[in-house]
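BUG: 3D viewer hangs when loading the predicted structure for this chain

Environment: internal workstation, default settings.
Expected: structure renders.
Actual: progress bar stalls at 90%.

Input used:
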Amino acid sequence: MSNILELHNLKKYYATQKAVEDISFSIEKGSIFGLLGPNGAGKTTLLRMITGIFYPDSGQIQFDGKTFDPLNDIIKIGYMPEERGLYKKMKIGEQALYLAQLKGLSRNDAMEKIKFWFKRLEMESWWNKKVEDLSKGMSQKLQFVITVLHEPKLIILDEPFSGLDPLNASLIKDEIYGLAQRGSTIIFSTHRMEQVEEICDHIVLMNLGQKVLDGTVAQIKQQFKENKFGIKLSEVPASIHANCFDVAEQKANALTVKIKEGYKSNDVLQYFLQQNLNIESFHEILPSLNEIFINLVDGTKATTRAFQPVNN
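Structure tokens produced before the viewer hung:
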């Protein structure tokens, strides 16, 4: 699969800060890509370079196989910023029509696509409402529609679920999947690690302007696993003395064990089978992205290996 976007050694400096320091990564066409990082990590600066708002001090951006040309390529990008970018006094229908035409759609095409999306997201009755009368969640749905209705090749969503109730968040999530299936590429920027874990194929984690991690969700979770396993027994013995593992936690008949170096999961199973215990379940415990994020960014329990990027 070819790449829709390639960043090569991007740098952006301000007077007293290195906002982006030598960032490189690529994004495959049709993928859902997570751009993560704490406040001040450099995500917004990077997104503004990708959308042509800022120019990098050095480095190169390749878009759809050629050098990025903001004047011609920006029409192929949809950007939904975290901050509201709507005209408060303008009616919703008129605003959607105006912005769609700015993105190159004819009036007839714009009306057709707006009606499609308004119906799809249950917004048909909003046409004559003003933006200032909308709730945060309603404004978020409108911004999403305005971002995607011209069918851009690359869609950048910065905190797209902000202000949405669970029902509407699920609705937007389904639309994100659908857009990717129809060929659009999604850059998804958020602080919500559980959403990233559920939605994204590939992630990059930034901190202090630098790339800390780059890989698929599965790769990264494998890299940071701690050799922990969960085991549920029909009955837990009064004492456990094993050379191959330590018991990290016990809740009723469920144990979390950490296998010692030089041993394997089969050694744990063999130990309990030799005790004539009935094993109801046994599974590997992988760290969540939230745990990895906290360890890397805050330094909590981080080791030197944690700062080695995962690269394909």
